[in-house]
Structure formats: structure tokens, C-alpha cells
Amino acid sequence: MSRTTAVLKRIFLGRPMHHGEMEHTLLPKTIALPVFSSDPLSSNAYATQEALLVLATVGAAGLDLIQPVSIAVATLLAIVVTSYRQTVQAYPTGGGAYRVAHENLGMYPGLLAASALLIDYVLTVAVSITAGVEAMTSASPALHEHKIIIAFAFIGFVTLMNLRGVKESGTLFAIPTYGFVLVIYLMIATGVSRCVFGTCPVAESADLPLPPEHALTFFLILRAFAAGTTALTGVEAIADGVPAFRYPQSKNAAKTLTIMAALSISMFLGISWLADQTHVVYLEHLEEQRSVVAQIASAVFSGGFLFYVVQAMSAAILILAANTAYQDFPRLSSILAKDNYMPHQFMNRGDRLVFSNGVLILAVLSGILIVIFDANLTRLIQLYLVGVFISFTLSQSGMVMRMRKLREAGWRKRAALSGFGATVTGVVLIVIAWTKFQRGAYIVIVAIPFFMAAMWSVNRHYSSVKGELARPDPRTADRRRGHQHMVIYVQRLDAATARSLGVVRSMRPAEVTAVTTDPGTASAWRRLAREVPLTTLSGQGNVRRQLRDHLAARRTELDEHDFLTLVVPELLQSRNLMEVFRRPGLTRLKAAMLTAPGVQLLNVPMVVDEIDPSIDETVEPARNHVLVLVSGVHNATLQAIEYAESLHATDIRAISFGLDPERTETLGNLWLEARIPHPLEIEASPFRDIGLSLRDYIRQFDADGVNQVVTVVMPEFVVSKRRHQILHGQTALVVKRHVLFERGVVAVSVPYHLHQS
Length: 757
Fold this sequence. Notes:
Elements: H1 3-13, H2 22-25, H3 29-42, H4 47-55, H5 60-63, H6 66-90, H7 96-104, H8 107-139, H9 147-163, H10 166-197, H11 218-228, H12 237-240, H13 249-277, H14 292-300, H15 305-320, H16 322-338, H17 356-372, H18 377-381, H19 386-406, H20 411-469, E1 484-490, H21 495-506, E2 511-516, H22 522-528, E3 534-536, H23 543-556, E4 563-572, H24 579-582, H25 584-594, E5 599-607, E6 623-629, H26 635-645, E7 651-658, H27 661-673, E8 680-684, H28 690-698, E9 708-719, H29 731-739, E10 745-754
């Protein structure tokens, strides 16, 4: 990373946070409420409106049912919240519907819940941002043609704030969230007082004609009820994010859930009551009409200053409702990654202790969705709710099964409540899927099985890799040590090539040869290293293929326990990462050699400012300290240890950087059980950057490439299918980027080929 990039990163994201500051990022209830409840609270801006859209199709008589429908929705919300209170207490590690369904109903229901939630979070961002943009373009029609750009700007802003940290984003977003709650309560209180102590104001749409389009049937009432259940969106967010709360986490999460429910229910019922009393009419076919909340506010405040405050706060919270998804999508992704259902990179925390990869992926997916649907709220809203009610139904059903299994005191009453909630949300799910299928819900219904299949495939790959790495091959202490055979790739005769010759001599290989594609180097090579035979390949055609064929032929001549190492000298002009891109041919060659069976790759970099004409680089260094990077005790690590033992090093150290205390302790125990005859050093990586931590560790050796060399041995997974590369963290690439410019450091890649990937 260049200095300029690092400075910009610090300006926009802030300083890197030590993992010891994790507790500092935990949220008090006052901040957790806007962080996790902006979505369910914002749904009050349109939940009543969605129910009125359905009821208006049967004429004026249908609008009279808005209050009983709203009471039914509020009752369901109370039941679901009660069930989720039990969930946050039973599952303090988070995961919500996924964790409940996976542990109590099985793998496939768990994956169904996870897929539904992930899709719902992407839709939440797309719908919330689009709704906010629509509110802006309604106030200023000239902005309409720029709506996608505006939506992208809002996504970028919310993404940036979440990359800065959960607590920081929550503090900023608390203002519009609490502001929205306050102005809605002020609107309700003012409207109720005017109706009770005077004359109820009348909405601007009260005189609109309402010709009946449908008969009033039970199914239509059920449709209105299902439409009103948009008030429940986002309720599961707190159950997914329990670990983000201050201790005691479950208790604080349950209290926040209760507060959120009380606010949502009271605001929803208040808005529905005022909609009924002010005779609001909201029709689907009318394009230029104010929202239900806007009509109520205009009537209650007589279009004054407070009306514009309500509009501003409504637009703000609609946009910031996306923040709920930004909290839970990365967190759920990290839980799924820990369970091997998503790429392990989703477990990584960034500089600010947030799951940065999840945040960025969510931004990209929601942006793509907005482009596909042209930032059209009407089209996007049709995809909504299916995932929400799948997760509600599975979560409550899972809690029923858990209660039946544990049979704790009072379990029957709690199970009956959750069972009733699961039944109602299941019915709502069927109604939503039926009524919105052709309008767009089919996209979600079709997408969910694909998500499930993808997660199942990821899990199968990781299980296959785990099985292959744990094969009962002979362990290090039991194996016959193989001999080392090295082939130096001579692109040109320079200081780096001379240094590589000295490094190779210090490793005492059983055999050293050299290979080149330039016939002109033969005579100079004989003067430099007469004892090392040089083979000249044809300079015509694909050099990488010729080199692979040459190494393959050499491999057939060796014992299966022997190592064949390709040594690649590299003279760098500066210590800038752009050096890698200035020689793409060599970079591609090194990448190609990693996939060559039975071949290891030793990179000997040297920066031109290290060249000293008075020093003979071909002289072998007096000391060679070998460091083997360890992430686990498995066959790939053991192969790297055996490789290190073939280098005749001054000393061999296995080193691991502890990112997770629990995994670190397990690693230490497994190391002792494996009887590996080398010490394991576990170093702290407080800022979660293995490359920087390794660089700092290496510098204690004062390696200069002449008297002392540090050899970093890295086991690398090589998968047989290219699509599986994304499932592995590519830690070796990060390490190479940091050690490439370190004086006196050489890096060895020891590929471990995964055949069952």
C-alpha cells in the first residue's frame, strides 16, 4: 500500500483499532436501538399505506377495516417479538433464525433461513435507499433523471460510515432515528388531541371517489393484513446482532427488542388511527399523491413547518433503514463462514473491527439490484417480505422444537405462543407469495434455492479439504527426510541472480542446476557458477509451458519424498508495490509454477539500493533462519515443515499469529499431539494484519542477505477447480506482498494440491 493510499484510508476510515478495543465497540442500548431498529421503525412510514392500498379496492367500506387490521398486525408483531426475546436469551452468540433453524430443524431449514435473510438484507438496502431517493425526487422532480447516481451516493455514504465502525455509524444515525420517532409521536399526539378536544382534521384525499373494484372477502382482508405486516420488517435484526451489545448481551438485546416493539406498535397503531379519522385515501393507480404519513402530517399540522420536519425525518430514516442490513448481513455472513457455509474471508475483521468484506459485498449487491430495477420502488417492493416471513416462520418453529426438547419450566405456554406465531407468519408467507408472485416475488422464491445450493457446495468443499488435510499420512517425526533439488531460473545475470546462488549454496541441496531461455548467458554463467550446469530452453513459444515441461521431466527422475524447488531471482527497482505490475510476465510465471505438481517455488527478491559492488553476492550467508508459517496442524503444514528441514537451516521456527484466542489454544495442543520436533511460536497480531506482524517479527534478525538470511516457508493450497480459489483466504499473497521488499528475506511457496476440491 502506498503512503498516499494509507493516508487517505486513515482520513476516511480512521486509525486501525487494536483487538483489545473490541469491548469499546460494543453498543449501549441507546445506540443499539437506532443501529438495529432503524428498519422496523422506518416501516411505520409505509405499513399503514400498504394495507390501505388493498382495502381501497373494495371502496369506502374497506377503509373502515384499517383499525382492526392494524390491531391484528400489532398483535402478531408482539407475538413475534416475544418469540425473538426467547431467541436472544437462548442464542447469545447471534445468528437469529439461521441458528435456531439449523440447530433445531436441520441443515436445510437452516440454509433456507440464512438464504432468505441474506436476500432480505440486500433488498432492505435497495428498497430503503430507493425510497429515500424517491422522497427527494418527489420534492425536486429535476433530480429524477439522476436517481441512480443519487442512490449510489447514499449507498457509498452508508457503506463508508459502517466501515468506520459499528459504534461510530450508530452514533451518527441515532439523530435521524430518534428524530423520526419524536416527530411521529408529536404528530400522533397533536392529531389525537385535535380529534378528542375539537374537530378532526381532514386529509386532502378524503373526497376522492372510491368505486369498488372487488368484493369484500375474507381473502381480501387477509391480503390487507399481509400487506400491513411490512411493519414487522427488520424485527429479526437484534436476534442476529446480540454479540454487538454491551454485557450482559442477551439481557440488553432483549430489553432493546422490547423497546423497539413498544415504539413500533404504538406508532403503527397511532398512524392507522389517524388515517382512519382523517379519512385518508391512498390509491395504487394515482401517480402524483402524497404518502399516507405525509397526508396525515399535512392535515394535523395544517401544512406548516412541522409538516416539512416530518417529511425530512421520514426521508432520512428511510435511507438510514439500510443501516440495519449493514449491521446484520456482515455479521450473519461471518457466522455462516465460521460454519463453513460461506467463504472464510467473511470472518475477517477490518481495521475498525467490523466485518469489512460483508459490508462491501452488501454494497455491491444492493447497487446491482438498484441498477437492474432502475431505482423503481414499486418494482423493488414486490420482492420484499418473502424472505422476512420465511425467517419468522422457521425461527419460531425452531424455538418450539427446542422447547419440546429441553422441557424447561413453563415450556408449554411459551411453545404454544411461538407455535401460534409460526402458524400465522406461515399463512402470511403463503398469502404474500401468492399475491406478489407474478409481480416479482418469484425472483426471490427462485433465488433462494440457488443461494442454498451455493452454501451447500461451499460446505462440501471445506469438508472435502478438511478430510484431505487430515489423511493419516506418516507424520513428520516418522518420515524419511527427502533430499532437496534446486533449479535456478536465470532470466539475466544480475545481482539478484548472484544472491540467489549464494542463498542456494547455504541450503546445501543434494543437486543444483540452472535453466535459461537466453543462450547468451551460457559463458557468463560458467564464470559465475562453473559447478552448476545450465540448461538452455528454446526461446520460442510459451516460456511457462517449456519451464513446466522441464520441471516435470526432472520430477520423474526424483524419489517421491524429494523436493524440487524452482529458484526465481527478482531484481526490483524500488520498494513500491507497483513493481509487481511492472513485470507481469514474471508474476504469471510464478503463479503458473505453483500449480506444477511436485514443485516448490523459492523467490529471491533484491532491491537495487541493496547492491554493493564491493560484496560478492555469490558467497553463501553464514546464517539462515527459517520461519514456517502455521495456520493449523494438518498435512499442508507438515509438508512445509519437512521442506524446511531439507534446507539445512541455522534454526527452524514455526510461527503462527493469534487472531482468535480459542483457535490459538487449540493449535498449541494439536502441535504437541503431532510430536513435531520444532518449537511453535504464537505471536500476537493486534491489528489483524498477518503481513505487518510477520514483517515486524522478521526485522529482529537484522537480515542483510549477505551474512544473514531469513527464509519464510509458506504452505499454500492449490485447488483443482479455479472457482474454489475464492474460498481460500490467499494469506500467502498478503505475506509475499510484505516480505517482497524486506532486505535479506526470501520466500518459499510449498504448494499442497487438493485433489478432492
